[in-house]
Amino acid sequence: MIRCDEVTKIFSKNGSEVMSLDRFTAEVADGEFVAVRGPSGSGKTTLLLTLGGMQRPSEGLVQLAGRDLYAMSPAERARLRSSEIGFVFQMFHLVPYLDLLGNVLLACPGKPSAEVRQRAGELMDELGLADRASHRPGELSAGERQRLAVARALLNRPKLILADEPTGNLDPENAAEVIRHLAEFHRGGGTVVLVTHGEVVNAHADRTLSLEQGRLVTN
Amino acid sequence: MSVWSHILREVVFRKLNALFTLLGLAMAVTVVVASQLLAEADERETRRVTRDMGFNLRLIPAKTDLGQFYRDGFSRHAMDASMLDRLATQLTNKVSFNHLVGSLRREYTINGQDILLVGLSETYVAPGQGKKPMGFAIEKGTIHIGSQVALVQEKKKNDTMHVGVRQFAVANDPIETGTPDDITIFVRLEDAQSVLGLAAKINEIEAIDCLCLTADQDPLAILRKEIGGILPEVQVVHQRTLADARAKQRQTREKVNQFVLPSVFVAGAVWVALLAVFNVRDRRQEIGILRALGKGGERIAALFLGKAVLLGLVAALIGSALGTWVVLEFGPSLFPVTKKAIQANWPLAAQLIMVTPVFAALASFIPAMLAVSHDPAETLRED
Fold this sequence. Notes:
- The complex is a heterodimer of chains A (219) and B (383).
- With 219 residues, chain A is α/β, with parallel strands linked by helices.
- Chain A has a single domain, classed as 3-Layer(aba) Sandwich (Rossmann fold), CATH 3.40.50.
- Chain A has helices spanning 44-51, 74-84, 100-105, 114-126, 142-154, 172-187; strands at 2-13, 16-28, 33-37, 59-64, 67-68, 85-89, 160-164, 191-195, 207-212, 215-218.
- In chain A, strands 6-7-8-3-9-10 form a 6-stranded mixed β-sheet, with helices on both faces. Chain A has a 4-stranded antiparallel β-sheet with strand order 2-1-4-5, with helices on one face.
- In chain A, a hairpin with a 2-residue loop joins strand 9 and strand 10.
- In chain A, helix 5 (142-154) packs parallel to helix 6.
- By secondary structure, chain B is an alpha+beta fold.
- Chain B has helices at residues 3-13, 15-52, 66-72, 82-88, 147-153, 189-196, 219-230, 240-282, 284-292, 297-334, 346-363, 365-373, 376-380; strands at residues 57-61, 79-80, 97-110, 113-124, 142-145, 160-163, 166-170, 184-188, 201-202, 204-209, 234-238.
- The longest helix of chain B is centred in the C-terminal third of the chain and has 43 residues, at 240-282.
- The two termini of chain B are 27 Å apart.
- The relative contact order of chain B is 0.18.
- At the A-B interface, helix 1 and helix 2 of A face helix 1, helix 9 and helix 13 of B.
């Protein structure tokens, strides 16, 4: 599913260079649930954004299903993200002026069909949000917001979910709930790469990658 | 979700940003509409006021000695009245003169009183201009007399009075004007020709120039060339004071317009652009997630430019209505002479309704491009 070969990312910051990823090499198989761990600043988020086609590496190769991600045009990468990748972030990144249904449907490329609307409704039902469809994100608890972000990530039936500390702002009960939904996606054949500090994911992850100063230290 | 639905929800959510953008654009449109309508009213008023001050162009026989002309107020030479007809046939809205009146002026004595006898023809106006003839029309069998004439001859309105062998009715209430008109009797041209024994003769053609040149230009050269081409037998006397007053007033207005309109456009553009930059800054996370969800740059640009177009359209409607209302409400007190001519300028409003959304979109273009080129990874990493 994913192959990273000698991926390096260097940022320029205040005149000096910071290496966020240092010759990172790893593979993630189809249907695998991989946890990524490491201290703050170890390059976990950079890795996730790079895998999602959002952050061009300074060097190295990133392949998704055999395709060189950064050999594609920005428009092709955007289409790929829309159809095959779902994102979940620690800060939810919901659009504050759209209601819950609108936020879920935002993932749909173009005008949502009746079928897509039905799926959005089903997802909200599964994630316990059906009765809040007309509310705005500002009216939800943190756990509900993250469940909404998960529903949005699942709408287009992606093959891969990239989750960046999705439980970082949640209490243990809500964290377990979110991980449970990601695990369900995994059981259905989906691939998950999840950046986390928490322990709740241990029971579900097939493998853990540990990063330190941009380098893979445990695979 | 359609772009317009998305834009509308954002506008409702970020009310203040939308409201300030709308206010800025609506104020700019209001100023443009009001200043344009006021400028039109101002020009109309000036034209009317200067027109009512009298003719500023006098065509007299070429042989006239100007010393005698200025001393007596009329030429002692005469010319054929057919010259008036020749000039009148050339009256179009392309020539630099209008409102032609032929006259025959001579000193005359009635019951021992020296007066000025003036015969006036009808007024010739360029076709299609729809302007009212200047001065006053003299009905057949009537005369208009000056205040001194009325006093000495002991005449008032509706009295009868002999001029030569003919009897006329006094048609006016004589009012003292402090001008030679006070010792003048105005009659129809053919009556003056008959009384003075100068059949088919006139000694002056009066007109108004309509050059509206700036004060530093020379209208006399243009008028002499134009009129000389039609009537080489006349010399042209141009009363510059009246013409200059009008030209200077017009020049002042143009200078004001040169300053006001560009200032309004620049201020409006800066205001809209600043608010759009704030809007882009407020929506960085939204832009990031839209990118992550696979939305392209054109969709991001459409959200910002579409918002500008929508607000520009609403602002144009509000500003056009407000600017028109302000002028219709307060214009008549500023321009009392031509107040009835103050009207809404619908073509201008239509132009502004088309132009303002484009203007707003252009002003928002750089912020929209900032949004499009914004690196989503930067904001998504800010967790």
